[in-house]
Amino acid sequence: MSHKTINIKTKKRNKKEFSKEEIMELLEDYIRIDNIDDVQPNSMIRYVTLDSNKRQVFREGGRLVNTTTKSVCLCRGTFRWYVKKQHFDNIDDKDPIFETIFWKKRDYIDDLIDHVELQHSEIQILKEQLNICKELLKILKEDNKITKDHIDILKKQDGKCKEICLTLKEKMRKRNSSKSRR
């Protein structure tokens, strides 16, 4: 089966314009890609690029075949085309006037990555909560030690008070018995 690659400048193609609502609906299961070179071949790709009038246009795209330094090759069936990664005002310009924005259809790996990132976030939150609990426990242990020290002091004072009371009672008894002998 031969794959034909065409130059999109020389061939007519469907140039349907989409409303914002239609674009949002078409991108519902897609995630924006920062670096298209990191995307696995055969992934479904959608994109926003510049047309010949240098207007931004949304394209439904196709399956990723491969990437080069300057372009991305997409296909639908046997039909292949290239999408520029960057657009320049003049060929000699160093800075692009626009960089094509790519989206990739979510797949099982994306769901796993999201799940792992969520678990990592939950682990971080739990670690922070654990550290707070450890600090609180440390404070409570210190408070407990202070409280125990106060209890020991109060017991000693209570013991002294009892001794003083017994001594006073003994003195009172002696006084009372000496008064009664008289």
User: Strand order within the widest sheet?
Assistant: 1-6-5-4-3-9-2
Stretches where pLDDT is under 50 for at least 5 consecutive residues are 1-10
Q: What's the helical proportion of residues?
A: 40-55%
Radius of gyration: 41 Å
Order of H and E elements: EHEEEEEEEEH
Largest sheet: 7 strands, mixed
3D structure, described in words:
The protein is α+β, with helices and mostly antiparallel strands and 182 residues long. The chain has a domain at 4-106. Helices cover 45% and strands 25% of the residues. Strands 1-6-5-4-3-9-2 form a 7-stranded mixed β-sheet, with no helix packed on it. Strands 7-8 form a two-stranded antiparallel ribbon. The protein is rod-shaped and about 130 Å long. Residues 1-10 have low confidence and may be disordered.
Summarize the topology:
Layout: E1 4-5, H1 20-26, E2 30-33, E3 44-50, E4 56-67, E5 71-76, E6 79-84, E7 86-87, E8 98-99, E9 101-105, H2 108-181
Parallel strand pairs: 1-6
Antiparallel strand pairs: 2-9, 3-4, 3-9, 4-5, 5-6, 7-8
